[in-house]
Amino acid sequence: MSDFELYPAIDVRGGRVVRLLQGDYARETQYAQDPLALASAYADAGARWLHLVDLDAARAGGYTLAPLLARLKAETPLKVQTGGGVRGEADLEALFAAGADRVVVGSLAVRESGRVAGWIARYGAERLTVALDARRDGEGRWRLPVQGWTESGDKELDVLAAAFAAVGLRHLLCTDIDRDGMLSGPNLVLYRHLCARLPELAVQASGGARALSDLAAARAAGCAGIVLGKALLEGRFTLSEALAAEAPC
């Protein structure tokens, strides 16, 4: 089995499978698939993991997908990495109780990094994924917006990623926001930089995947996995093709 993990992604807003362009809620594409049916299809294709995002909660707080998560765990063999709206330990506990294998923490990891570091120590490095989603500013620094990417942030990706690595973080999901949903290819320069600087992290590439060659490129850059969203939904390639391409020879 390949040690490079594919994470088919399902973003849910208002109960529907959707995709946003560059995190902009005003630029949404809706898809016909029911989230559970789509996840089941991914499981049937051979997926091991699912990346499930509650877009409503990412903006307003209060994770709403616990019933869906519970059904996913009961009806499919998928491991689920999920997040959106995690504001405190009660939210974290609720997601674990609903069956989350890993909880994704984004805005809170930027705003209250010490608190999230404590959760890594308490729950273990395999139960949490920190999402540090970045935009490059005019001075070339990677800044970390928060609140579902709707608010600008002043913290820098390099600094915070290194701080989390120092307290035992294992799984880091990093999205180049400007490439999210754009089918323009992953930012390989960014991922090569992160993976070389912090080799102890299992970096998940996210944003821009458009072709099977992007998977191999992300792997060559040092990433431990890649999140696949719009490319699958729009038929650029199938999950079966992606899994076959990443299978060991």
Automatic annotation (TrEMBL):
Active-site residues from the entry: 11, 133
Top-level taxon of the source organism: Bacteria
Pathway: Amino-acid biosynthesis; L-histidine biosynthesis; L-histidine from 5-phospho-alpha-D-ribose 1-diphosphate: step 4/9
Enzyme class: isomerase
GO annotation, cellular component aspect: cytoplasm
Reaction equation(s) it catalyzes: 1-(5-phospho-beta-D-ribosyl)-5-[(5-phospho-beta-D-ribosylamino)methylideneamino]imidazole-4-carboxamide = 5-[(5-phospho-1-deoxy-D-ribulos-1-ylimino)methylamino]-1-(5-phospho-beta-D-ribosyl)imidazole-4-carboxamide
CDD domains to which the protein is assigned, alphabetical: HisA
GO molecular function, one term: 1-(5-phosphoribosyl)-5-[(5-phosphoribosylamino)methylideneamino]imidazole-4-carboxamide isomerase activity
PANTHER family, alphabetized: 1-(5-PHOSPHORIBOSYL)-5-[(5-PHOSPHORIBOSYLAMINO)METHYLIDENEAMINO] IMIDAZOLE-4-CARBOXAMIDE ISOMERASE
Family according to the record: Belongs to the HisA/HisF family.
Protein name as catalogued: 1-(5-phosphoribosyl)-5-[(5-phosphoribosylamino)methylideneamino] imidazole-4-carboxamide isomerase
Taxonomic source organism: Arenimonas terrae
Lineage: Bacteria, Pseudomonadati, Pseudomonadota, Gammaproteobacteria, Lysobacterales
